[in-house]
Amino acid sequence: MTFQEFLNVAFSPVNTVLTVLLGLSVVYWLFTILTGLDIDVGIHSDLDTDADIDVPDGHLHTPDHDPSAWMHFLKFLNLDIVPVTYFLTLSLLITWLGSFYLNYFIPLPTWAGILILFPLMIGGMLLTRIILKPLNPFFKEINHKGELSYAFLGREGRLKSSIQDDKIGMMEVFIGSDPMTLMVRSKDGSRIEHGSRVMIVDEEPEKRIYYVQRSIRY
User: Fold this and answer.
1) What transmembrane ranges does the database entry give (predicted)?
2) Residue 168: how many CB atoms within 10 A of its CB?
3) How far apart are CA 163 and CA 145, in angstroms?
4) Distances in Å between the alpha carbon of 148 and those of 83, 101, 145, 152, 205?
């Protein structure tokens, strides 16, 4: 394969978006390595939340018995353990490689190449799950940056989604200078709006769910 052939396939109508995204991923990791800084990563869902779900520390903290199908799917992919940036980068790379070599060896019409991207993406996510699974113990060790679960009691933070009754939402709390996102419920079931300051007053350690109430400020 010549360099010109590589460029033709990499920037074909089917692969251009994937190639650009992969290039941005390379830039992200180079920036992270050189500066030691990490860029916030967000997961957005319209299911069971009134607002976007953000994952500032690159981890998604989900309870063990969340009724949301979306959360079950994320847990199936081990995104409650594996940092989102690792997962997305590897999934993107696998999808890009599959699409690149498929279009190189079997030239397809643009519409067919685009349709095949969807099963390639699903296959890429499943393969990423398998590849990263042996690293789960390592990711569990770094997941909470050494903080024990009971250390969150009494801490204050900001809601990232509205909560009410038994609905599960997200809360951002800082451990030192490190932001973390936790799964929370309203302690008394009352509605608390997105962006409100809340305090953690109780928890279910086995489910990793924390109960919050509005912060009282004088």
Assistant:
1) 6-31, 81-102, 108-132
2) 21
3) 26
4) 19, 46, 9, 8, 10
Identify the sign of the CA torsion 27, 28, 32, 37: positive
Strands annotated E in the chain:
41-43, 53-55, 156-159, 169-175, 178-186, 197-204, 209-214
What is the SS3 assignment for 53? Answer: strand
Give 98-132 pLDDT, tens digit per residue. 888 888 888 878 888 888 889 999 998 899 889 88
pTM over 0.85: no
**In contact, 99 and 120? CB cutoff 8 Å:** yes
Of 63, 54, 114, 124, the C-alpha closest to 89 is 124
In whole angstroms, what is the distance from residue 145 CA to residue 177 CA? 11
97 by Cβ neighbours in 10 Å (0-12 / 13-18 / 19+) ranks as middle
Percent of the chain with pLDDT over 70: 73
